Amino acid sequence: MRRRGGSLRSPPELGLVTGIVGGLVTGFLPGSSLQVSGPAAGMTVLVFEAVSEFGVAALGVIVLMSGLLQLAMGFLRIGRWFRAISVSVVEGMLCGIGMVIIAGQIYAAAGLKAPETGIGKIVGIPGVFGDAFGSTEALASLAIGAGTIAVIRLWKEMPKKVQVVPGALAAILLATVASLALSLPVATVEVEGLLGVIQPPGADAFGALAGPAIWGTIIAFALIASAESLFSAAAVDRLHDGPRTQYDKEMVAQGAGNTVCGLLGALPMTAVIVRSSANVNAGARTKASRVLHGVWLLLFAVALPSTLALIPLPALAGILVHAGWKLIPFRQITGLWRGSKGEALILMVTAVSIVAVNMFEGVLIGLALAVIKTAWEVSHLKTEVIDKGAGPIQVYLSGNATFLRLPKILDSLEALPQDRPIVVDLSGLQHLDHACRTALQNWAERHSAPDTDPVKVSSWSEVALRGRGESA
């Protein structure tokens, strides 16, 4: 990360440090079984703004304090509240992330720079293939990416003994051999030493904590990192049949990881749905898989950096395109549309919002829609008016009378004649909120004409008891 005219620089190797900590620290702690942690794209903007405002030296302090805040939230058992997430929102999150991954990695597979926005990436895909046909390098790069995907797909047809080697690893090895043997002009991984980039925060950096501005950034880091991690946990749990995530413990694990990252001056850490889904798709069954994620990163980055430099980037892009495709829940979308079009709409809006904005805000939009839909369904109310021409008019209310339905209730009641006796029966109501109760009382007191019997409202007490859970 650079700023023109200044000396700000956040080395990309810091992301490897964060990934190693995610495996060796967070991976060992209880919480999620198959979720993999490391640097996340969702934190990029926050990191850039923090480094721009406070300097790269303060980044470690910010990550350290946000990790401690996550630890506190985990010990206070706040993590469990993230379980209250609609299934349609989770599926929409998977779908949106899958589309963003596929769109972005198509550019990487062609050796081209992707647009900044998700919409821009999708709209520009036709141009990628158009440009590729005019460039030998781009065609070679796309061929490596496509070949990687083909190997992963066909690997499942190989004999069981061969499948002991994961398909993704086999694809990477074959892509590397092919690019070397054919001398293909494709970009490869670049990794420098890790020890030189580790810079623990000094005393001056801790001095920034005296200012109030930095605390807003710390809180933002903690909340967004926690939300992304636990939203990801809900999604990963739907990808496998193993042990479910213990949300409070996972928040503690994420906090411990970010605390260590802060002490090392590394980037902030969250659980990452892309790595996690790749972990599940590779056949992981125990939490040892997320620990090994850090072990392999450490081994290759420290001991074998020259080996990493042989891996073609389009091969990695092909693996991510395959992982993104696996994230899109095609069967669930079809079944949801047949069973509940409202839930399917929430799924699609969540997915589109993630593509158009980002994961965090897209999930919030989906959750808001889910809450609105639930509130609307819970407030279902039926009003029945029976007028036999003689005697009092009978009005029956059934369902749930909430403020959301108050305009409809009052429209029906105020349309009744004022020169006839009226009896309102509330025995069919399951719930009557304060706003509706007050409005009904006011209407009953002022509706009848002076020479007409006043409105009678039955079952006030029964409905009140139901509202407090004291009656069935």
UniProtKB/TrEMBL annotation:
GO terms for biological process: transmembrane transport. Keywords: Membrane, Transmembrane, Transmembrane helix. The keyword Cytoplasm does not apply. It is found in: Membrane. Residues 11-350 form the SLC26A/SulP transporter domain. It holds the Pfam family Sulfate_transp. One of its GO terms (cellular component) is membrane. The keyword Nucleotide-binding does not apply. It is a multi-pass membrane protein. The chain crosses the membrane at residues 12-34, 54-76, 88-108, 138-155, 167-186, 206-225, 295-325, 345-372. This is Sulfate transporter. It comes from Streptomyces fulvorobeus.
